[in-house]
Design brief:
Blueprint: H1 2-10, E1 25-26, H2 34-39, H3 60-74, H4 78-89, E2 94-97, H5 106-118, E3 123-128, H6 131-140, E4 148-153, H7 163-169, E5 172-177, H8 199-202, E6 207-210
Parallel strand pairs: 1-2, 2-3, 3-4, 4-5, 5-6
């Protein structure tokens, strides 16, 4: 524990607190998005309309916080440090990965899994467009921990969910729609907040978000 505290002192970072969420999250700069950076250049994709490329995310203090999280994420001691941080700071029983950014690489995914295993009482939600990393994990390691809900995010606005791949890998999906009647996420109707909804973390069904 003493070593972990020393590491926290040398690699300081904070957890993000999105106003919509009932819990804390962990965000990274958009430059780590591998699939997302390619999709961002294509009209009609979800990443071309990425909310994390606009608004408060553009401010210097936010960008500095994102860079600090990336440095911590890349450090050798990230797993024990992050485990201790979530255990200390998150009291809701839920946690979201990446309100900005995505899984940057294979080692990063393994770190996320290790943290979920270390914190079985926390329900983790991992939305991602990095399908290849998820497929690699399932095919080489096996199923994800029960408390880690991996949600393959669709690429195209109003496009289909990647249901076939998700089903084969034992994970779930999400989509983005421009039609309010097709959205299943209730946030737009309740002040853009989750409130008591936890579908992203616990639902086996596709979650459809309204484009924002």
């Amino acid at each position: 524990m003493r070593h972990i505290q020393e590491t926290l002192a040398t690699v300081p970072f904070t957890l993000s607190e999105p106003s919509k969420m009932p819990c804390r999250s962990f965000s990274l700069p958009l430059r780590v998005c591998n699939v997302g950076s390619k999709l961002a250049k294509k009209e009609g994709t979800i990443c071309a309309e990425c909310y994390a490329a606009d608004g408060n995310y553009r401010f210097g203090n936010v960008q500095r916080a994102l860079d600090a999280r990336l440095s911590a994420f890349e450090s050798a001691d990230f797993v024990p440090v992050m485990t201790a941080k979530i255990k200390k700071e998150e009291r809701s029983g839920f946690f979201r990965w990446f309100d900005s950014g995505d899984i940057p690489n294979w080692k990063g995914l393994l770190k996320i899994v290790q943290i979920a295993i270390a914190l079985p009482d926390i329900r983790f939600w991992l939305p991602t467009k990095e399908y290849a990393l998820i497929q690699r994990y399932v095919e080489t390691v096996g199923a994800f921990p029960e408390n880690l809900t991996v949600r393959l995010s669709a690429y195209i606005i109003d496009g289909p969910a990647p249901v076939a791949l998700a089903s084969r890998l034992g994970v779930v999906t999400s989509t983005v729609t421009s039609d309010a009647d097709k959205a299943t996420c209730p946030a737009p109707k309740q002040g853009n907040q989750c409130r008591d909804c936890r579908a992203c973390w616990v639902s086996d069904s596709n979650v459809a978000y309204l484009l924002h």
